[in-house]
Write a structure and sequence with these properties.
Chain A: It holds the Pfam family ABC2_membrane. Chain A: Its main location: membrane. The complex is a heterodimer of chains A (254) and B (278). Chain A is mostly helical. Chain A has one domain. Chain A is built from twelve helices and no strands. In chain A, 43% of the residues are buried. Chain B has 278 residues and is α/β, with parallel strands linked by helices. Helix content of chain B is 37%, strand content 22%. Chain B contains eleven helices and ten strands. Chain B has a six-stranded mixed β-sheet, sandwiched between helices. In chain B, strands 2-1-4-5 form a four-stranded antiparallel β-sheet, covered by helices on one side. In chain B, strand 9 and strand 10 form a beta hairpin. Chain B is globular, with a radius of gyration of 20 Å. The termini of chain B are far apart. The chains are: A mainly alpha (254), B alpha/beta (278). Chains A and B meet through helix 1 and helix 5 of A and helix 2, strand 6 and helix 3 of B.
Chain lengths: 254, 278
């Protein structure tokens, strides 16, 4: 059986990537909201925001925008997973000699590819809007690594939502709070400007450490201890979400 | 294989299943002979689907044992999955993919060589060659069902489960499914089908079991079941064509296949009969 895991995952990933290629609007829709936010913040609100640094505002807020991109992108994973469960195709696969884990991994890998594509679009628009970075190749790789970890963590949460949802709307609703989380973080304004309780929350939630690390990497500055806090959050969420998703999957399809 | 031959294709002993307080199956026993068509008859909610899901390893029973193709469904689910294929109540096709891509996908997941050739053969067999390049979402209900069943035939599984294969189909598509099922059994495949249509069981099945309130209350050939009632009385009744007879005569038996894929060879006899009537 184990010999088929890789092959089955490849076949099933190709299937769901075909779904995306046949409706590329899912990638574009994922990119549109963050781009609109970027335009709004840079050209409308940004002028009034004092970030306390001499960096351009777009440089300041791009990391948060990337996280919003991922948070809205993974909603499609729970949506596609839910449709598979509803349509009966999942049961067909389940009744076939297909590796069980392949059915989830295919959706997870597809999510990774789709979100990287959406992020590339967002970064492209940001470059046009004046985003500049002196980041080294190593720093870029670190940024990509952080984004991949964040995508995987969010995607496994999306798998939990997709497996347990009762309706299509419910399958994607879980992502709304995730999309809002960056707003109560250091993504758009410094946390010092917030009232004490809000600032406390902002400083101690995962987004702030991830955003601060990414921002430092883009600016070519030392990341300090933030990167360890960020990695701890990312790996922690990833492991919990993965275990949770697999537990639900096993219970539903033992 | 030769020693297997004597064993039944499916053996169900004392299967029980409850969902919370609802006792759906209360001790089901039956056997299905190799290469036969076995119909599980029951009204809605009788537990037919639950039983099929247990036999196709999608669900675990609370008690009892079941073997399919000699493998215990609980202990050897992977061997069972290698030996079966399931066509559920709702056509389980990928609507975004084309008909051909659906077949290729299943062939690849069954780890077969030449998935493309397998797909083309099945498309031809089911009169879907022309539609093969179109997305399954554009198919009619009958075509979707044909694609669904053709996907189940990939890899020639010795046992096939058909859960209400004709529910929601129009009369012509129904007859097409029946013809396919008969061909399968002729080729040595064991077919277990569930249905709530009495005429379907009567038409197709070598044996019929009636599932009622979680138990098999009767199991026999059609002739045996008929003997349960008092001997036939001779009555003179004016032979009126049923509305189905009228409908099928007017539109031709395989009207759908004829319009969708005019060049197909299957069921050409009844198709030409239909044309003569027109």
């Amino acid at each position: 059986m184990t010999t088929h895991v890789l092959g089955d995952t490849r076949v099933l990933t190709a299937r769901s990537l075909t779904h995306i290629l046949r409706s590329p609007d899912t990638i574009i829709t994922t990119a549109v909201t963050p781009i609109a936010l970027m335009l709004l913040f840079v050209y409308v609100l940004g002028g009034a925001i004092n970030t306390g640094s001499d960096e351009s505002y777009i440089n300041y807020m791009l990391p948060g925008i990337l996280l919003i991109t991922i948070a809205s992108g993974v909603a499609y994973t729970s949506y596609r997973l839910f449709l598979d469960l509803q349509g009966g195709i999942f049961e067909r696969f389940q009744s076939m000699p297909v590796a069980r884990s392949s059915m989830l991994w295919a959706h997870v890998l597809t999510s990774l590819v789709a979100n990287l594509a959406s992020m590339a679009i967002v970064i492209g628009v940001a470059l046009i809007m004046g985003f500049r970075t002196g980041a080294s190749v190593a720093a870029w790789l670190a940024v990509i690594g952080i984004m991949v970890l964040f995508t995987l963590a969010m995607t496994w949460l999306a798998v939990v939502a997709g497996l347990s949802a009762k309706t299509v709307d419910g399958a994607s609703a879980f992502s709304y709070p995730l999309i809002f989380l960056p707003f109560i973080s250091s993504a758009f304004v410094p946390t010092e400007s917030m009232p004490a309780p809000v600032a406390w929350f902002a400083e101690n939630q995962p987004v702030t450490s991830i955003v601060d690390t990414t921002r430092a990497l883009f600016a070519g500055q030392p990341v300090g201890s933030d990167i360890w806090v960020a990695l701890a959050w990312l790996v922690g969420i990833l492991v919990i979400a993965y275990v949770w998703a697999v537990a639900i999957y096993r219970r539903k399809f033992s | 294989m030769t020693t297997d031959q004597a064993l039944p294709a499916i053996r169900v002993q004392g299967i029980e299943k409850s969902f919370k307080d609802l006792h759906v199956l209360r001790g089901v026993d039956f056997e299905v002979t190799r290469g036969s068509i076995f119909a599980l008859l029951g009204s809605n909610g009788a537990g037919k689907t639950t039983l099929v899901r247990i036999l196709s390893t999608l669900l675990k029973s609370d008690a009892g044992t079941a073997t399919v193709h000699g493998f215990d469904v609980a202990a050897k689910p992977n061997d069972v999955r290698e030996s079966i294929s399931l066509t559920g109540q709702f056509a389980a096709v990928d609507e975004v993919l084309t008909g051909r891509e659906n077949l290729v996908l299943v062939a690849k997941l069954r780890h077969l060589k030449n998935p493309g050739a397998i797909a083309d053969d099945l498309l031809a067999m089911f009169g879907l060659t022309e539609a093969g390049g179109r997305r399954a979402a554009t198919y009619s209900g009958g075509m979707r069902r044909r694609l669904d069943i053709s996907m189940s035939l990939i890899g020639d599984p010795p046992v096939i489960f058909l859960d209400e294969p004709t529910t929601g189909l129009d009369p012509q598509a129904r007859i097409e499914v029946w013809q396919t099922v008969k061909q399968l059994a002729k080729g040595g495949t064991t077919v277990l089908l569930t249905t709530q249509y009495l005429d379907e069981a009567e038409h197709l099945a070598d044996r019929i079991a009636i599932l009622h309130e979680g138990r098999i209350i009767q199991n026999g050939t059609l002739a045996e079941l008929k003997q349960l009632l008092p001997a036939a009385k001779v009555e003179y009744v004016e032979k009126q064509p049923s509305l189905e007879d009228v409908f099928l005569t007017l539109v031709g038996h395989t009207g759908e296949a004829a319009t969708d894929d005019a060049d197909t060879t299957r069921a050409s006899g009844s198709a030409s009969a239909g044309k003569e009537l027109r």
